[in-house]
Amino acid sequence: MPRPLHRGVSGGGRLSGNSHDFWDDTQMKDRVEKEDVDRSRSSSGHTYLSIRFPFRFLFSDNSAYKHGASENGFLSDPFSPGTSRSRHKLALLFLKLSLVAILVLALTGSFWWTISITTSSRGHIYRGYRRLQEQLVSDLWDIGELSLGTSRLKEMEFCSQECDNCIPCFNVSENLALGYSGGKEYDRHCGQMSSQSCLALPPANYKIPLRWPTGRDVIWFANVKMTAQEVLSSGSLTKRMMMLDEEQISFRSASLTLDGIEDYTHQIAEMIGLRNESNFIQAGVRTILDIGCGFGSFGAHLFSKQILTMCIANYEASGSQVQVTLERGLPAMIGSFTSKQLPYSSLSFDMIHCSRCAVDWDQKEATKISSLKYSFLWFISEATKDLYPSRVHALSLSIVYHKNKLAHCIFSHRNQNRNGIFLIEVDRVLRPGGYFVWTSPLTNAQGFLRNKAAQKKWDTVRMFAKDICWDLLSQQDETVVWRKTSKKKCYTARRPGSGPSICSKGHDVESPYYHPLQACLGGTQSRRWIPIEERPTWPSSAKLKSKELAIYGLHPEDLDEDTLNWNSAVRNFWSLLSPLIFSDHPKRPGDEDPSPPYNMVRNVLDMNSRFGGFNSALLEAGKSVWVMNVVPTSGPNYLPLILDRGFVGVLHDWCEAFPTYPRTYDMVHAEGLLSLEAAQQRRCSLLDLFSEIDRLLRPEGWVILRDTVAHIESARTLTARLKWDARVVEIESNSDERLLICQKPFFKRQANSSRMREGM
């Protein structure tokens, strides 16, 4: 008899209800054995399901509800065709949950990885980005140079003999042709691209200057443009201290004669109330501006007392005071009071000295008014430099305003009858409590020796000095000493109309760059108004206090770090120069290169000084140098900080010629200048900049540039055109930067010949 169908699960499959599922009675034994086998297979089938679906327990709670029970009381098969849709839904749900979990884990890991990037890692990314930018700028620069034609790739030609002492921006004949007169033809006039397109050669008999300190007292006559008559003729006190001896000019700054420099400086110290000039430092005098310095003997004598004297004088085609002073290894630059302010910050010098400096301190009224007219014309030229149509209306209103203001100024000055505009500029650069020393026949204490005109001039200067709050300390022979007030309240305590007004905050520019002379007192709005007696004395002044650094947004740690970096850099520079200097000297195998002499250089130009760290490091290393610190107009202005540290410096635009004569400096240094200039909208090319460096550099002088790899490589390609010897040096501490060390060869111009030859 047929038996009822046995429903079960075996191997994860399902048994059907056809005839193959029925068994005969005669096969009972086989059937029983088969059932035993089926039971074992059923057990193994459940095990197989457990392996294939390890997450089945997630749905165990509601499995009965999902599958339900059959009519015969058996649980329905969850994997039967009737439940396939539910099975797919479960699989999809599981898949979705898995994807969500993976996504959450990925986002969490990415977030933690992002915030775990260190500052240094971000710095590397930023530097890499900057490197790409700089490389792009450098490539565009090179393309621009190459686009000018193959001729630009040739070596630069030498200038004619007439240009041996040429200074762009001081072309007298060109200035006269442009209509400048009344002394303004000797003033500085820089137009667009005022640079030299050739290499200036030294005179035929030029010789390498003697090393310091011998070179301070003896210079080669052929190295400066001067006649024997100019050497022997009497002039200022310091000019009388010269003697011509065959090929040399000798200076006797320590002469025991009655009018010797030593006696003169001793007299000034006594007039101030000091024992002698050695006490200048204790009195707060570290930096002196010497106007019309003669040939620098005043500063040469005081240098041994740790006093730093900056000489300024007008441009002179022959017998230049500035050129001779620089040849002696002393600080100097071309500068005048004709119509513009000096490129120094306000409150910069502790003393200003004028010994027969040929400056009319009682400046005439007409010149003052013409100076105001010049100011008006200067404003128009500046305003129209980059004129856009949308600004025309605003400019016209501004011109009307300044024209009315000019008329008011002229009327007011005519009525008040004030003179002494040059003394106002002296007052601007003089620190509170600083000294103004004037030696002139006009100041002779014996009044009966003055004529009526001289007496009038003296009275004018004396009264004007009183009006600007200067105290007359002493008057001896031809020398008079004033002291600038240390207290601002002196200006407000003056009688109305008794002196020039104080500049408003908008007109009191701390670091003017050849702005027109002003008729108001500047520097009074500065946060740097600190009397010299309250300032730290040298050399402590080189390390500014926290309060002074806060003016520039700096902390003592910033200056300390800068000092450490530069101390290390200077040591490396000197060690790098050793093999270069002595590479052509014979030596035995195994011998080390000798150290370079401490006085191998004297005049140093730092083209991008920043905090003056290079200057500070050279002094700490015991190098017998002085540094002209230059702050580019295209970068942040730290010139006041440099001057407050007791160094000398100046503001300058490197697309213009530097105000000095050719062959001035033994070493030119620049860190980051190429990157700084590349970031600006250029008015000049890299070749213009390098040709100006060549003009300033003495034969066999050094150039040290530190910048990014891209800019150094661009600069290196130009050194061949300038005929320099150059090599690139890697910096281990910073793979993004390189050093470019160059030396200018000594090319000589043969006498009575246009041929050139290199000095041996």
UniProtKB/TrEMBL annotation:
It is found in: Endomembrane system; Membrane. It holds the Pfam family Methyltransf_29. Keywords: Glycoprotein, Membrane, Methyltransferase, Signal-anchor, Transferase, Transmembrane, Transmembrane helix. The keyword Transmembrane applies. The chain crosses the membrane at residues 90-113. It is a single-pass membrane protein; Single-pass type II membrane protein. One of its GO terms (molecular function) is methyltransferase activity. PANTHER family: PECTIN METHYLTRANSFERASE QUA2-RELATED, SAM-DEPENDENT METHYLTRANSFERASE. This is Methyltransferase. It comes from Escallonia herrerae.
